Amino acid sequence: MHKGIATVCLSGTLEDKLNAAAAAGFSGVEIFENDLIASAWSPEQVREHCDRLGLSIDLYQPFRDFDSADPGTARRTLRRAERKFDVMRRLGTDTMLVCSSVSADAVDDDEPLAEQLRALAERAAEHGMHIAYEALAWGRVVDTWERSWEVVRRADHPALGLCLDSFHVLSRAQSGGTSTDGIAQIPADKLFFLQLADAPL
């Protein structure tokens, strides 16, 4: 089984984090954007160091507040995504995590949200990349895995799938807001990424 760890889970500089991940026996890493921004290394240098350590870069994350009820903001967000795709190309990774919006202007309707995600997936596909959509437990509109799956299903694009994070899924289940029943019914080819994260009950 291929196992990775997110750099946000580790301490120190990005170099320290990558070295620690390799030393702990992980096969890959998720590069957290803030770690890359804070690093003196270029994306190419990060990629080269991972290659030396035998680490794949499995995910670039997170792309925040993607959707918007304002058409102008939605267009600007797609342009922002293009810059992320360029960074991903330089890193040598092909999957970006897009988390559900916490913004006040988040789209509160599944169909237009699906349309915006489909547009993003089309842009990603043009670059040979994929989008893994994740419901944050504190998302303004999409805060359960069921809602995230519904919009991904409606968007119906091969470059768009789900990221399931046990923290967000189980914290909502614990509060009675959702259930894990039904996850096994999601087609396997739409489960792009799995994150296992724990927290105090």
Write the layout of secondary structure elements.
Elements: E1 4-6, H1 14-23, E2 28-32, H2 33-38, H3 43-53, E3 56-63, H4 71-91, E4 95-99, H5 110-126, E5 130-134, H6 145-155, E6 160-165, H7 166-174, E7 191-195
Parallel strand pairs: 1-2, 2-3, 3-4, 4-5, 5-6, 6-7
Helix pairs in contact: 1-3, 3-4, 4-5, 5-6
Overview of the structural elements:
The chain has helices at about 15-25, 35-40, 45-55, 70-90, 110-125, 145-155, 165-175, and strands at about 5, 30, 55-65, 95-100, 130-135, 160-165, 190-195. It is an alpha/beta fold and about 200 residues long. It is built from seven helices and seven strands; from the N terminus they run βαβααβαβαβαβαβ.
**Estimated share of beta-strand residues:** 15-25%
Helix content: 40-55%
Reported for the largest beta sheet, the result is: 7 strands, parallel
Distance between the termini: 28 Å
Give, in spatial order, the strands making up the sheet with the most strands: 1-2-3-4-5-6-7
Instruction: State Rg.
Output: 17 Å
- What form results from the Cα inertia axes? globular
User: What is the typical, i.e. mean, pLDDT?
Assistant: 95
Short structural summary:
With 201 residues, the protein is of the alpha/beta class. The protein is built from seven helices and seven strands.
